[in-house]
């Protein structure tokens, strides 16, 4: 499987997660669908996600960025991949947006991981509960971080200066 195919699958999975879970951090409960309320309650009670229940202002900001910027990037990448026909790739024109998404999502998730690690004991989470919560947030750091590295590498390889240096 190509990296573009993996990104396509990741974005396809991330769209419903954004619309059903993450946006509940900003939508008042009276406007949420019952499935959103159920998923939110599950995240808070089963996974002991104190970030979701506490909702610090910085977390609300990150979710707003996810809805305003990241969700359209997901949709553009999905559309690009589907339109590419047998080539099965995401357009190079979207690389800067994927890079911005990767940086933003990795930074956001890294902040969440640090906050969870430092604050878990004050929320009386056991070591198992802390590692479980860290485990839930870790892929949302690692995958976008990897995207940053991959897309940066692609952009460098496709730049004229890089090609000239390789020839000389």
Task: Supply the key terms.
8 helices; 168 residues; 75% helix; mainly alpha
Q: Averaged pLDDT, please?
A: 94
By DSSP (H or I, 4+ residues per run), the number of helices equals: 8
Largest pleated sheet? none
Give unreliable regions as ranges. Answer: none
Assembly level = single chain
Alpha carbon gap, first and last residue: 34 Å
Helix content: over 70%
For the secondary structure, the number of strands is: 0
Fraction of residues in β-strands: under 5%
Structural class: mainly alpha
Radius of gyration: 18 Å
Secondary-structure element pattern, one letter each: HHHHHHHH
Q: Tell me, briefly, the overall form.
A: globular
What is shown here, in short?
This protein is mainly alpha-helical and 168 residues long.
Protein model, in words:
There is one protein chain. The chain is mainly alpha-helical and 168 residues long. It is built from 8 helices and no strands. It is globular. The two termini are 34 Å apart.
What is this structure's SSE topology?
Blueprint: H1 3-20, H2 34-45, H3 50-54, H4 57-83, H5 95-119, H6 127-137, H7 139-158, H8 160-167
């Amino acid at each position: 499987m190509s990296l573009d195919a993996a990104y396509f699958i990741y974005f396809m999975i991330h769209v419903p997660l954004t619309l059903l879970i993450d946006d509940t951090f900003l939508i008042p409960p009276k406007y949420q669908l019952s499935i959103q309320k159920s998923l939110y309650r599950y995240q808070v009670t089963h996974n002991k996600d104190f970030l979701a229940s506490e909702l610090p202002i910085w977390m609300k900001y990150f979710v707003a960025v996810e809805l305003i910027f990241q969700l359209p990037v997901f949709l553009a990448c999905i559309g690009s991949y589907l339109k590419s026909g047998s080539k099965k790739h995401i357009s190079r024109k979207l690389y800067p947006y994927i890079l911005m998404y990767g940086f933003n999502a990795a930074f956001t998730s890294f902040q969440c991981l640090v906050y969870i690690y430092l604050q878990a004991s004050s929320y009386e989470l056991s070591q198992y509960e802390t590692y479980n919560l860290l485990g839930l947030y870790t892929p949302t750091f690692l995958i976008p971080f990897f995207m940053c590295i991959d897309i940066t590498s692609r952009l460098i390889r496709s730049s004229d200066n890089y090609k000239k240096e390789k020839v000389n």
